[in-house]
Design brief:
This protein is α/β, with parallel strands linked by helices. Helices cover 33% and strands 15% of the residues. The protein has one domain: Aldolase class I (TIM Barrel, Alpha-Beta Barrel). It has a seven-stranded mixed β-sheet. Bound molecules: iron/sulfur cluster (SF4) (2 copies).
Amino acid sequence: DTTSGLDEKTKARIEKHPCYSEEAHHHYARMHVAVAPACNIQCNYCNRKYDCANESRPGVVSELLTPEEAAHKVLVIAGKIPQMTVLGIAGPGDPLANPEKTFRTFELIAEKAPDIKLCLSTNGLMLPDYVDRIKQLNVDHVTITINMVDPEIGAKIYPWVHYRRKRYRGVEGVKILHEKQMEGLQALKEADILCKVNSVMIPGINDEHLAEVDAVIRSKGAFLHNIMPLISAPEHGTHFGLTGQRGPTPKELKALQDKCADSNMKMMRHCRQCRADAVGLLGEDRSQEFTKEKIMEMTPEYSL
Ligand code: SF4
Ligand code: SF4
């Protein structure tokens, strides 16, 4: 149970968020809008044709929307699915590599549907720059994908990082990413924004290292740790630099989650690795009921 041992105030903050509260995921729905196409790092397991693999199931292509289209879609869906409590931006690239689009979308939604909770996922590279803006917009949940706290291990996962108009390769780039992730985590803590950390478990690369990642993020105040399996399937095409890399078995994943759960960190075990345009309860995919075309049919009076 992800809520045991929490104080009442924190419980109230997460009770309607299906990812942060295991209990809530049976009753409340979330949606993602795919407004953020660009990315500023390269993960070796990412195939850029598809959604960001840090939050999403690989091999899925989400339909890209403008902030205006996204806000319209949210309103239509909120009208049809009353349990819709959370709106997240998780891709298809990195939301903070597309700050204008991401923040414009949040602004429009906050204005038109103030009851909907806002949520954001990022690789963390630009997070320290935007924590104030995130706080100001009342975004109460942020996910950072942290796969390592050791840049030598990170160099096997990230071939390059693009930071402030410059590309850094290998360990040099990973050091920047690591620093920014740690600063971002700290800044979220100080701003009292709940932070979930996603880690992608990659056998032979970071599987033995993730217990250390768990300890570090816990000491820095992360609220929840979500260790997800690398999903690698030949039909997703060649990954940038991990061709032939296998994902963990369910048994290996559970063993690692159990090991980290021992440390008393809240451990998320109900993540479904949703698409960047997911709609509905976790585990139920209604995205195809709400494509751009179908939304237009539902609301013929709406024109952009
Ligand atoms: Fe791909 Fe996401 Fe990594 Fe960017 S952060 S390279 S979109 S998996
Ligand atoms: Fe929640 Fe996992 Fe889906 Fe993100 S990918 S919305 S954490 S279930």
